[in-house]
Amino acid sequence: MSNILLFNKPFQVLTQFTDPEGRATLADYIKLSGFYAAGRLDYDSEGLLILTNDGALQHMLAHPKFKMEKTYWAQVEGEITQEALTLLRKGVLLKDGITRPAKAKQMEAPKVWDRTPPVRERKAIPTSWIELKITEGKNRQVRRMTAAVGFPTLRLIRYAIGSWTIDDLPIGEFREDTIHISQKPKGNAPGSANRKGRNKASKPTGRRANPAR
């Protein structure tokens, strides 16, 4: 049995517990000791981050060879086109290679918390939202993918990792689960989960999340 924390990370929070520059870190929200982030989520991205106190599970969740599917909601500049979505599905050529084929579709704007500070939008240029599912973790991959097809990302929220999601998890808060590692993870979460209920963070911010499904 392994313990995990599902944390809904706010914008501009580092996925580490210390920072010499004084920026917001996980320590501002999580007071439990012995937990470490399983994978990355960029400073300027929001949404689901998994932490665990089990080193083997941390490796399994973070390592790209296990192909854990991650679902992102991206607000992009401009009205996304079917041509761009097709390119995302086929794989995009980046400086560090071609991305694996992704699942990409346009979506309605999700009903989520207001970001602080808000996204800077230009009145003359519309925005749109896409759902993108990937199975790898190149540095700033989603942002680079949307930019490569002509639609820069303005806001990025990670909605899910495998079958874990941010549903009913307010921004800046976490929930603790215990899981049994019965098999190596592929598209979904490994083993079975036993939800323990929500643990409020020390400094919850924003309002209650109510993501669109």
Structure description:
There is one protein chain. This protein is mostly beta strands and 213 residues long. 12% of the residues lie in helices and 32% in strands. The chain is built from 3 helices and 12 strands. Strands 1, 2, 3, 4, 7, 8, 9, 10, 11 and 12 form a 10-stranded mixed beta sheet that branches. It has a two-stranded antiparallel ribbon with strand order 5-6. A hairpin with an 8-residue loop joins β2 and β3. The longest helix has 9 residues. The chain is globular, with a radius of gyration of 17 Å.
Topology summary:
Layout: E1 2-9, E2 36-37, E3 46-52, H1 55-62, E4 70-77, H2 82-90, E5 93-94, E6 97-98, E7 103-107, E8 127-134, H3 141-148, E9 153-161, E10 164-165, E11 174-180, E12 192-199
User: Could you describe the largest sheet, including whether it forms a barrel?
Assistant: 10 strands, mixed
CA gyration radius, whole angstroms? 17 Å
Helix content: 10-25%
Q: Determine the strand fraction and express it as a percent band.
A: 25-35%
* Contiguous uncertain segments of 5+ residues: 191-195, 200-213
N- and C-termini, Cα separation? 30 Å
**Assembly state:** single chain
Q: Characterize the overall form.
A: globular
Based on helices, strands and strand pairing, what is the structural class? mainly beta
Tally the helices: what do you get? Answer: 3
Number of strands: 12
Calculate the mean pLDDT score and round it.
86
Q: What order do the helices and strands follow?
A: EEEHEHEEEEHEEEE
